[in-house]
Description:
Blueprint: H1 2-20, E1 31-36, H2 43-59, E2 62-66, H3 75-88, E3 92-95, H4 104-112, E4 117-120, H5 128-131, E5 136-140, H6 144-158, E6 164-168, H7 176-189, E7 195-198, H8 208-221, E8 227-230, H9 233-245, E9 253-257, H10 261-269, E10 283-286
Parallel strand pairs: 1-2, 1-3, 3-4, 4-5, 6-7, 6-8, 8-9
Antiparallel strand pairs: 9-10
Amino acid sequence: MKLALRTFLVCWLCAVLLLGGCAPREKPKKFRIVLIPKGTTHLFWQAIHAGARKAAEEHGDVQVVWQGPAKEDMRQEQQNIVERFTSEGVDAIVLAPCDKQTLVAPVAAALKKGIPVVIIDSGLDEIASIKDHPKYLGYVATDNYAGGKKGAERLAELLPGVPAKVLMVRYQAGSESTEQREQGFIDSIKGAANLQLIVPKTEAGATVDSSQKAAESLLGDHQDLDGIFVPNESSTEGMLQALKGRGLAGKIKLVGFDSNDVLLERCGRDRSMAWCCRIPFRWVTWA
């Protein structure tokens, strides 16, 4: 988490310095930079907000505006937020897109108006009018594909040498970061001859509640599982709750990407479950 804060601190400072270098000014200006996360409930986004506030405090001439949808599946609401701040003419936008496609047009419009944009955490389909625009300052994120591969390697370590059945639950179509984690996991797990991979069409969805409901259904359909991979904070917590409800926590090996206080507290009080959180991949495992 500290690395995430430092990374996005650098991102903010780069944006601010570029803004400050555009033209000389007689007196300090308070730059208004809006930070638009995928959602506002996950612990990860709260850490991003803290990093932005820290950078603004250290730089001194920045006002951070924090505005995002409540849930990560509210694509239209996030699009509306980007469009509103574009219309207002803020000094810069830092955005974690809910969806890699639906946010393309709003970002292109912001750049066309001359507003610098930084994309964080989850990627955007970079059409020419975005990637070639001088006001597009780049993309800052974890190597999500490598993180998914690490998750597969960890699950293979937990299920050594014996035939095993592994379930991977997708998060949400259009979420570039989790799609990369999922693909990294799939590509890596194929190299383990003893592991049979199941990837159902059912998605975890944007909340712990939707994830738990999906997990309960999947656990009912697949009762002979040995391991499970889930690609983000809410899907990990939802799956863990479903496993606990069926008395399977600690019996089926669970590897989840991201963590929060609920997950870490569970690990701390249940010594039959081993956990590991590895920077920069932010993944937690239960054995």
